[in-house]
Amino acid sequence: MFCALIRAPFVDNKTSSKSLRSKWHRAVVTVLAASRREANMTQEDLANRLGWHRTRIAKIESGERRIDVPEFISIANALYIPPETLLTRVLRW
Prior knowledge:
The protein has helices at 2-10, 23-38, 43-50, 54-62, 69-78, 83-92. It is mainly alpha-helical and 93 residues long. It has a single domain, classed as Orthogonal Bundle (434 Repressor (Amino-terminal Domain)). Helix 2 (23-38) crosses helix 6 and helix 3 (43-50) crosses helix 4 (54-62). The protein is globular. Residues 1-17 have low confidence and may be disordered.
């Protein structure tokens, strides 16, 4: 059900891609980085909340590393943003 809800806006045979440089991947990393800054957190702060190394956050935000749904939810929670709100920001980007 969740996939059906988010899949429609992503389906575009001309631009749909699993690459690290796809439009949707750029939207995710842009929204995550902006949300972190809005929360007045450094990459180090966010990494500490998640129990991750800062370089993991840096690679995500630079687009070098993709994230999966559980990681997205963990990041949203660490930013004190409901995951559905963060996803809405990505879809509106």
